Amino acid sequence: MTGSILQQVLPALDERPRFTVGERVRVITRAPIGHYRVPIYLRGSPGTVERVIEPALVDNEEEGYGRNAGNRRHYYRVAIPMTALWHGYDGSPRDELHVEIYETWLERA
After folding, report:
1. Domains (ranges, CATH) in the chain?
2. pTM metric for this prediction
3. I want to staple 24 with a disulfide (CB 3.0 to 4.6 A). Which of 40, 55, 74, 109 is the partner?
């Protein structure tokens, strides 16, 4: 390696994706007061990670209150079966809702 410097970009603590494509997740059920970004009807729903959104971004809920301090985490595109969202759904069992959800709202299923 003559004449060049090899640089490696390392993610900061907690900036690596917590979930992977194909992983089963559940939207966390919680009721925060104030500013939040997950519709109530999605809470508690199971789904599958379809995509990790890059790059990691700031937590917009915490940012709204000035508490973020630059921490970055990932959004994930999650496929949620319509049958998990709507009791008595009579469409195709393959129908899904695709939604992007911030990492702090997901847990392993």
Report:
1. 24-108 (2.30.30.50)
2. 0.82
3. 109
